[in-house]
Amino acid sequence: MPLNSVNTNVGAMVALQSLNRTTDELAATQKRISTGFRVADAKDDGAAFAVAERIRGDIAATTSANQQLGGVKGLLDVTNAALENVSTALKTLKSVSVKLADGTITDDQRTQYQAQVKELTNNIKAFIDDASYNGLNILNDPAALGVNVVTNGQGTYYTFSGYAALTNIYNTVSTANTWTAGSAAALSSTGAIGTAISNTLTQLNNFGSYSNYIESQINYNKSILDAQESGLGALIDTDMAKESARLQALQIRQQLGTQALGIANQAPQSLLSLFRG
Q1: Can you give the pLDDT at residue 42?
Q2: Per residue in 122-173, pLDDT tens?
Q3: How far apart are alpha carbons 98 and 179 in whole angstroms?
Q4: Does Secreted count among this protein's keywords (predicted)?
Q5: What is the pLDDT at residue 1?
Q6: Are 153 and 58 in contact (CB under 8 A)?
Q7: Enclosing H/E stretch for 188
Q8: How confident is the model at residue 198 (pLDDT cuts 50, 70, 90)?
Q9: Nearest to 165 by CA among 135, 195, 133, 190
Q10: Where are the alpha helices (DSSP H) in 107-239?
Q11: What is residue 155's DSSP assignment?
């Protein structure tokens, strides 16, 4: 039985409750649309938000690891470039040393060849000394003979070795400008030049392999980042088309609820007719 009262308007209370629910749903929908997130904070969905925060941490760590790997790639590229230049200089040094080992050349010719050889060995030392990237030289830095690199967001290490190139390459041929006709043995596979060339080629192979690994890891991390971001989006992103349709429906419900509340608020006015003579 309806209550005819000017103090208690049941119809208005029901209409207000419905309007408040619609207003709350509308605010939530507007929040999703404005932020682009279905789960923007813990209030939206505590469990999903906690998972999303963990994934965001993983993404940040993987991104940071890839940035560091980019620096390592730069270091290895510089190192490989230096070794390639050293290899080229050693090939030239070998060809000039053949002439130095020849006993038929004149003293003037020998002096010229020795000057050329000295320039070549100076170049080899300069290539090694200049193989620095971000202050680190893994061809001429005793502290860099063992290098630990973080390869991913989980803290996994990849370790590679530097190389004492001054000792094992330059020092082997540093006195080549003093070689005489009796120094032909330096040209043999186990001689000074042969040893320097062998050491250089070995390190070119080693550092090339390191560089390939780092580049592969960078690409792998990019794939992981794509997967992490895709999963995160599926977890918390808003379906904008769905929310747009919902927004329009809620706006209509809000308008209807406002009208219903207005009608309910007018109901007590009808009681005045009972008191008219």
Answers
A1: 87
A2: 999 999 999 999 988 999 876 666 788 988 888 888 989 899 999 999 999 9
A3: 11
A4: yes
A5: 42
A6: yes
A7: none
A8: very high
A9: 195
A10: 107-129, 165, 171-173, 192-236
A11: -
Q: Which pair of structure tokens corresponds to residue 171?
A: 């020092």
Q: Which residue has the tokens 């004149």?
A: 106
Distance, CA of 4 to CA of 271 (rounded, Å): 8
Tell me, which fold does domain 66-225 have in CATH?
Answer: f41 fragment of flagellin, N-terminal domain (1.20.1330)
Mean pLDDT of 101-110: 84
CA dihedral 29, 32, 38, 39 (to 10 degrees): -110
Distance CA 216, CA 14 (A): 64
Asked if residue 192 lies in contact with residue 170, where contact means CB atoms within 8 angstroms, the answer is: no
> 180 and 128 in contact (C-beta within 8 Å)?
no
CA dist., res. 39 & res. 231, Å (int): 14
Q: Are 208 and 73 spatial neighbours (Cβ–Cβ below 8 Å)?
A: no
Reduced to 3 states (helix: H, G, I; strand: E, B; else coil), residue 169 is helix
